[in-house]
Please model this.
Amino acid sequence: MRGAFIVVEGLDRSGKTTQVANLQAKLESSGTPVKLFKFPDRTTAIGQMIDSYLRSQSELDDQAIHLLFSANRWELATSIESLLEQGTTVVCDRYAFSGVAFSAAKGLPLEWCRAPDSGLPAPDLTIFFDISPEAARARGGYGEERYEKEQLQRRVRELFDVLASEFDDERWVTVDAGRSKEEVAGEVWKYAAALVGKVSPQVDKLWVPALQGRIMYSMKL
Model:
């Protein structure tokens, strides 16, 4: 039995980092092998360039930074797929959906933004943390990085809705992240516990036709 691939997405300051750490701990305590990834991974050479950009310490064209974000995910794609095949559940704090939503929110074409990530390992479940930009702004540290601006966050939220519409309820769920940490953690665990140990043997590919003609990820936009 392969591991489950769970992605947690959301607006900035929606509580993702806290909740993925909590999910990792719960999975470990239940006896499930688990590995946590965070994107961007700022420890790699590409990740360090992204980190400098996000902290407004350097400037890059929108197209260039988008491709760097994608390359950062591809750096770890083989490792993710290998872990899944070995039976380790993988939890990601952000993934390709963030890359597409944030770049498209800046005005780049949606399909152009999606193309570099086509073929990445596809998550079995994406949990989207929904929170209003006003509520996010009220949380500590808001505005410290480049993308933490209310107008941009509103557009990103709209684009996440577009991406969510391509998935059925088994592949993409939305969680109200404006509630207490305990309430959010309980709902996240409900979805994760229902998935682990019940995934199909094959790791699907993101935004490409799946086996036997089943299109799991629509190219309708």
Q: What stands out?
A: Strands lie at 5-10, 34-38, 89-93, 125-130, 172-176.
